[in-house]
Amino acid sequence: MRPFMCVPRSLSFFVAFFSISLAAAATAPATPAASVEADSLFTIEGKGYRVGDLSPAEQMRIHELELSRFRAIESLARQRFVDDKTKPFESLKNADKPFAAEEKWLNQSFEPSAKEIDAALENFKNEKQFQALPVEERGKVIRRYLGQQKRIKALTDATDKALQKGEIKLALREPKAPVITFTKSTQASLGDAKAPVRVVEFTDFQCPYCKKFAAVSQEVLSKHGKKIHWEVRHFPLSFHKQARAAATAVYCAAAQGKLADAKKWIFDAQDKLTQENIYKDLSKSLKIKSDVFDKCLSSEATEKAIQADISEGERVGVQGTPTVFVNGRKFEGDVQSLESWDKLIQELVKDSQSSKTL
Fold first, then answer.
1. Where is pLDDT greater, at 35 or 299?
2. Among 77-86, 120-129, 147-156, 167-176, where is mean pLDDT lowest?
3. pTM to 2 decimal places
4. What is the pLDDT of residue 333?
């Protein structure tokens, strides 16, 4: 499962239980294989079932398992490569310098500079978890955090190069997510409806990772707006008690042409969603027609629209937020990375232009 997303606890338990079940099944005695059609996943009473016969959610479940297996093997290969390369320098390691062998191999230090530590202290100063730390411990925690981040980046870059050069070769190819066909939405959207890149975002306005992603999506749209059609689908999670009301408010503001402004306003006010009159403040701030807005908030049609988004998310296998699909495929990379978005959009636009010339 993709990290840095809001996921129901019950689902986390299910994933853990399912993983244990898979492990148990892998060690169970093999049974004689029945005759199965060449491209079928399985047969029931002689009828073969292919991937295309499964629901989108079922296709995504299988894909997630295949992707987990691929990433586990890739991770093992990367780690073994690093272990082999750092073995000659193992004697340099000690309690104070646990990563000395890696630093020697890469010829670089993971130690953050005083300037980097100061900048991080400033950046994290308003975070609740950070504020809970004793003042004298904060610098130490930041130093360890930045050092680990530098280490991860350095090792990832080194093993990425090894994969590109063929020094690491994987027997498996990374599985591609299935292409999902979405129902047409009548809701407001962002960007150009005729653009070659269609983004469908499932979001929860009480999810902190969705709030972080909102800043990224805003920058992506600012940079690539003419190339993208961006649809916002509401997926309020049950344990976020204010999320559905927030989704309703954004939906109603969007109906008056204020989708982008409403998204930003709600995420900025994420810690204040329990306050009385919060949505009156929203309508005043965005200068929308308050009577139309209020009527929309209590409308049965609005409730049906939000529920339609939730049902659509469940149909396509959404498990948490943010979940993003680009041209029908689930975004598998770092959804918070502008670099990943730039690369993907460039590739999709290029593919679109190539197909037009054929």
1. 299
2. 120-129
3. 0.80
4. 84
Q: How many other β-carbons are positioned within 10 Å of the β-carbon of residue 235? A: 27
The DSSP output letter for 321 is B
Q: Do residue 197 and residue 340 come from a single domain?
A: yes
**Residue after which a domain boundary falls, among 145, 178, 211:** 178
Token digits for 52?
């295309």
Closest alpha carbon to 128 in 271, 233, 225, 260: 271
Token output for 19: 């993983």
User: What CA–CA distances, in Å, run from 206 to 39, 50, 159, 264, 280?
Assistant: 43, 38, 37, 12, 18
Pair 113, 78 in one domain: yes
Q: Which domain holds residue 214?
A: 189-352
Domain final residue, candidates 125, 157, 178 = 178
201 and 170 assigned to the same domain: no
Q: How many other β-carbons are positioned within 10 Å of the β-carbon of residue 256?
A: 18
Question: How far is 122 from 266, CA to CA, in rounded Å?
Answer: 24
Half-sphere exposure of 332 (CA within 13 A, CB side): 16
Q: Tell me how many domains the chain contains.
A: 2
pLDDT tens digits, 118-141: 999 998 888 888 889 999 999 999
- Asked if the model's pLDDT at residue 173 lies above 60, the reply is yes
CA-to-CA distance for 251 and 303, rounded, in angstroms? 10
Whether residues 241 and 152 fall in one domain = no
- Answer yes or no: do 208 and 337 share one domain: yes
Residue 4 lies in a domain: no
> What is the rounded distance in angstroms from the CA atom of residue 17 to the CA atom of residue 5?
20
145-184 in b/e form (b: 16+ CB < 10 A) is ebbeebbeebbeebbeebeeeeebeeeeeebebbebeeee
